[in-house]
Amino acid sequence: MTVREVTQHNQANRHVQSNRTNAQNQRPKSVQQWSVVDVQKWLRRHCGDYFHLYCEAFLEQDVTGRCLVRMNENSLMRLGIVHPEHRQFIWREIAKLRLRSSILYLRDQERRMAENLNSQFMQGSPVLDQV
Questions:
Q1: 71-121 confidence digits (pLDDT tens)
Q2: Which residues of 63-101 are buried (b: 16+ CB within 10 A; e: fewer)?
Q3: Which domains are seen in the chain, by residue range?
Q4: Helices 36-46 & 84-122 angle (0-180, nearest 10)
């Protein structure tokens, strides 16, 4: 390998590593922002046994993340998921998704509140001075 090739190889490796670091530091997209494609990926990953049966129904109805987390068992029934066991399984997965989403939201809120309190404390907030 020439010096030039080694340099290019090292630069390419640094670029890949920096992209991995950025990807690791970024939080995944909020469920509320999911597209129809994101919902299809979720359906395949979490409801894989039923994906082939219901992916078309989710696509035809343009089910986005916002729509998905608002679904209940009746919504799934209207979507064509008439088998009770399938419907209950998918609904449980949606409920887990809702819960994970709520937990992330609450963590973000706590972090923001802590940052606000910290910045007020560092600035010598009048409220804290009066105490």
A1: 999 999 999 999 999 999 999 999 999 999 999 989 999 999 988 888 877
A2: bbbeebbebeeebbeebebeeeebbebbbebbeebeeee
A3: 31-118 (1.10.150.50)
A4: 120
